[in-house]
Amino acid sequence: MRFEHLGAQPRIHPEAVVAPTAVVSGDVRIGPGCQVLHGAVVTGEGGAITLGENVIVMENALIRATSVNPVHIGSHVLVGPMASISGATIADEVFLATGTRVFNGARIGERSEVRINAVVHLRTVLPPETVVPIGWVAVGDPVQILSPDRHDEIWAAQRELDFPGYVFGLDRDTPDLMVQLTERYAASLARHSGDRRLD
């Protein structure tokens, strides 16, 4: 399914294949040889998304751009089932395994691997050919790659990256943080009320 969002329509190369149950919305460019499988969502939420050549977006994966953080995915990239990319830059020949999470402002270098259920956190930079092991967390620039049992170290680095401030423009110490966050985000997402289905 293709949707016009905020006046922008997807541009899908004729040699790309998008499954009928996938959703492609807004300012999205899908290059030749790309495959977007069933249940995947590729949505430009006020920002652009570019998929290079021969990108495979597997079942139920989510790729989301924001007005602050567009998404650029290079060529020959595999985005595994149930993976999530939000506002990140992915270089060529990257493997993002099942269930991986890549957050806003992250940059993943060429030929890197983010293995099953691993996380690349907000504004984290992975140099080329980096491997994030199964279930581990990559955080910061320069990057630290930590096992999930090292929560205190992950949180120390993550806190400095300031997720609510960077993504939502809110101070983490705001007393009603979740009230303000959800109201702002809901207002932003309500812009979909004017979307127009194209197929």
UniProtKB/TrEMBL annotation:
<keyword id="KW-0808">Transferase</keyword>
<dbReference type="InterPro" id="IPR011004">
    <property type="entry name" value="Trimer_LpxA-like_sf"/>
</dbReference>
<protein>
    <submittedName>
        <fullName>Carbonic anhydrase/acetyltransferase-like protein (Isoleucine patch superfamily)</fullName>
    </submittedName>
</protein>
<dbReference type="GO" id="GO:0016740">
    <property type="term" value="F:transferase activity"/>
</dbReference>
<dbReference type="InterPro" id="IPR050484">
    <property type="entry name" value="Transf_Hexapept/Carb_Anhydrase"/>
</dbReference>
